């Protein structure tokens, strides 16, 4: 239901705060894993699970929470999600050992539900003319938060300690939860049907079976029995999940929706972009922190490495804001293709020219321009292509597919970079060069996938005669996206 302007004026700010907090919680930790390893007296292979378990949890709960929001009320599930994010942050902040830390990070993974719920609330509560801009802004903040976490990690640890990386976002989350409780209105849009527990369990099972071997393959070996067995189990469980969903009267993920040209093509772009972005952010800081005596790298501190990535965050935010205007002028497909081509150019720079800091700064700025515009555009394409009651689950699956792509990218980079090692144990320059090139190829694939996105991707509901404001509100409750019907004379 569309709400009065006075009621909705805090909706977008509180959603932005929740999304920013989640993005920071995801990205702040990667640069300080060695610090956590030393403090909690664990091994390098074990401490990587601080990232992995959060990724697994988010992959599982993002679409589930999106679906629950569509059924029970997005504002209610958003509040639950924010509280879980805060609780997980508190557990991680006080963790006395690695086991407790992993529990906290798994609980934090529920924060992935912020994304589909935020997009759904925007579509349900804001006037049509504000939806595209708000969606673009949320996508831009998600992008800048992802890059900003890498930038802020060093200064925060230097000034305080690594546990502040959990406390500070927790404060932001609690503030967002409080405002959500008092100021985010109920949309009134609900999806019919029952919640499928079987589909949820199968979804969790095949995602775990897929992401664990992809994350651990660099250490276990791609041809090891464990990796191959889990990948085979993932295929079987995924097939079973698809069968259950296809036969369900109230599926967790509507397979007909997923087959929509605008949805599956955009999801393919998200998968390939996830490979590129998360694969890069997981390894570029280590490249820049490598001492120059290795023949490459800058010997940068954690703080300085973050500053070299800062142009990406700034450019991503600015291009995300400009995304809706560019889409209005040139069309979503054109903007999406343009964004992917900018990403290709950035990885070409990183592959061929990475000896000077200004080259890294240039590559990061170009990459940010491409990713920011593309992320904002993808979100708007999905919002426009599905019925109102499927907005949350559709965007949840898009974000989830990007997360799966991130796991693929991290595994790909770990295998390529780790395959060539210097006598001192550091990766060779060629290892990074080949890794950057592989991520560039993923961006090329994203550009080709973007070419498949249909130009006319808007979902059309049955015509509704809009005679006055009361009829307009009734149509909004019915879930008519954008209220495409003509105003009756």
Automatic annotation (TrEMBL):
GO cellular component: plasma membrane
Keywords: Membrane, Transmembrane, Transmembrane helix
GO MF annotations in UniProt: transmembrane transporter activity
Keyword Transmembrane appears in the UniProt entry: yes
Localization of this protein: Cell membrane
Transmembrane among keywords: yes
Membrane topology term: Multi-pass membrane protein
PROSITE patterns referenced in this protein's UniProt entry, alphabetically: MFS
Residue ranges constituting the Major facilitator superfamily (MFS) profile domain according to the UniProt record: 11-458
SUPFAM superfamilies linked to this entry: MFS general substrate transporter (SSF103473)
Transmembrane portions of the chain: 12-34, 46-65, 77-96, 102-122, 134-153, 165-184, 196-215, 227-244, 264-285, 305-323, 335-354, 360-387, 399-422, 434-453
Coiled-coil residues: none
InterPro entries according to UniProt: MFS, MFS_dom, MFS_trans_sf, Tet-R_TetA/multi-R_MdtG-like
Name under which the protein is recorded: EmrB/QacA subfamily drug resistance transporter
Source species of the chain: Asanoa ferruginea
């Amino acid at each position: 239901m569309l709400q009065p302007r006075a009621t909705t004026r805090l909706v977008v700010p509180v959603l932005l705060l929740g999304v920013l907090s989640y993005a920071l919680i995801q990205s702040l930790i990667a640069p300080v894993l060695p610090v956590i390893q030393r403090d909690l007296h664990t091994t390098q292979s074990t401490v990587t699970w601080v990232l992995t378990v959060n990724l697994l949890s988010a992959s599982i709960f993002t679409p589930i929470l999106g679906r629950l929001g569509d059924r029970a009320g997005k504002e209610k599930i958003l509040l639950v999600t924010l509280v879980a994010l805060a609780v997980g942050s508190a557990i991680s902040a006080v963790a006395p050992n690695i086991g407790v830390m992993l529990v906290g990070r798994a609980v934090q993974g529920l924060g992935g539900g912020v994304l589909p719920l935020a997009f759904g609330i925007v579509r349900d509560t804001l006037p049509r003319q504000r939806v595209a801009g708000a969606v673009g802004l949320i996508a831009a903040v998600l992008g800048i938060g992802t890059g900003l976490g890498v930038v802020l990690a060093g200064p925060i640890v230097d000034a305080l300690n690594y546990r502040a990386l959990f406390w500070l976002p927790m404060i932001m989350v609690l503030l967002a939860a409080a405002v959500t409780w008092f100021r985010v209105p109920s949309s009134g849009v609900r999806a019919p049907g029952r919640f499928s527990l079987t589909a949820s369990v199968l979804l969790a099972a095949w995602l775990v079976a897929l992401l664990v071997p992809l994350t651990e393959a660099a250490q276990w070996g791609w041809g090891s029995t464990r990796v191959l067995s889990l990948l085979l189990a993932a295929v079987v469980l995924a097939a079973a999940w698809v069968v259950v969903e296809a036969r369900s009267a109230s599926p967790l993920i509507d397979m007909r929706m997923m087959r929509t040209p605008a949805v599956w093509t955009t999801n393919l772009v998200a998968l390939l972009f996830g490979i590129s972005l998360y694969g890069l952010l997981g390894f570029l800081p280590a490249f820049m922190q490598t001492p120059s005596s290795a023949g490459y790298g800058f010997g940068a501190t954690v703080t300085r490495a973050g500053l070299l990535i800062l142009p990406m965050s700034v450019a991503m935010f600015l291009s995300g804001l400009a995304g809706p205007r560019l889409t209005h002028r040139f069309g979503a497909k054109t903007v999406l293709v343009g964004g992917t081509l900018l990403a290709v150019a950035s990885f070409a720079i990183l592959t061929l020219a990475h000896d000077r800091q200004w080259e890294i700064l240039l590559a990061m700025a170009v990459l940010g321009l491409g990713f920011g515009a593309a992320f904002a555009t993808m979100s708007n394409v999905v919002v426009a292509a599905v019925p109102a009651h499927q907005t949350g689950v559709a965007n949840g699956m898009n974000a989830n597919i990007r997360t799966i792509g991130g796991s693929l990218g991290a595994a790909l980079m770990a295998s390529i970079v780790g395959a060539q090692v210097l006598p001192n144990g550091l990766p060779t320059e060629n290892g990074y060069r080949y890794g950057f090139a592989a991520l560039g190829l993923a961006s090329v694939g994203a550009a080709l996938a973007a070419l498949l996105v249909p130009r006319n991707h808007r979902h059309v509901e049955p015509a509704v005669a809009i005679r006055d404001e009361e009829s307009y509100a009734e149509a909004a409750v019915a879930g008519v996206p954008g209220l495409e019907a003509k105003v009756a004379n």
